[in-house]
Amino acid sequence: MPVKNRFAELLPEITAWRRDLHENPEILFETHRTSAIVAEKLEAFGCDEIATGIGRTGVVGVIKGKTDTSGKVIGLRADMDALPIHEQTGLDYASKTDGAMHACGHDGHTAMLLGAAKYLAETRNFDGTVVVIFQPAEEGGGGGKEMCDDGMMDRFGIQEVYGMHNWPGRPVGTFAIRPGAFFAATDQFDIIIEGKGGHAAKPQQTVDSTLVAAHVVTALQSIASRNADPVDQIVVSVTSIESSSKAFNVIAQRVAMKGTVRTMSAEMRDLAETRLKAICEGTAVTFGATADVTYYRGYPCMVNHADQTAFAADVAKSVSGDCEDAPLVMGGEDFAFMLEERPGAYILVGNGDTASVHHPEYNFNDEAIPAGCSWWAEIVEQRMPAA
To answer: What is the pLDDT of residues 149-170, one digit of tens each?
Structure first.
């Protein structure tokens, strides 16, 4: 395939971009260096339009095909931000910023989309327009939502949008995808249990907030086991418990708890929020305490559109020879916001036998670059074939 051959030629160059980004990670919306590099390269490639500052630090490039009789406009999206993790890879291009690391492969996503943009700007062998989207703050900041809220879809006339993520554990350069709900909605909660503190030797004079918190942790698991339909997906995890006392002989007045809820449907999301609040408040009252619950709705469930998913799978098969059915993922992905505004699909590309994402020893596998770049390019050339 010509596309794959071209990306094999470009591999050393794209790899160098990727490793430079890896060495200089930036978190959330602070992708100033990364965004500047992306904009500079898009200009060097000869993009027809470049827009910066969308979604604060997002960058968009427009590439027009040789012809535009179809009027089609396709968006391709990559994320740029890193994670607040101290890198432990020992690589010669490891992060130079203490406490920041590309532990999810967004450096690879950005580099692959830049490689595809270079190829598409060189060849323009399609009928329509491609919009390359470089997004900040995927890791919890909702950069995708901010780019949409800035009017990106309407401004550039995007009709369909496609995203990609590397996947450790899958053979390098192979693909997997599924239609419908794919990545979970990711909500968070804060719980404050207020009791009555006192001496640990006189528990009868207190309302033990730690005891209440322990019962709350156990009771919250009944949402999944006794409230949810067993065939639906839900995770309720209490991830932090901290009392107002650090002493051995003091029963704490207050306990603060944090956690996350992951769901795959709007109905289950509503149920989880309602039951979580009721369980916390009811359990606290049982013991004479109070519970103040704050529930934060984060990223929505990411839902792949059926037609675009089937097309994306066919493109993947043309690149690698196969595309498997992907499992449901209880992690979150803010590409969900873009798929709420436009039809599209999100695919996984194999990263080989590497550490998992969000691990301090993770590293993006540069051998996946030709397959990833080829998929981006083929999405454009097959969806908008040259007239």
So the answer is: 999 999 999 999 999 999 999 9
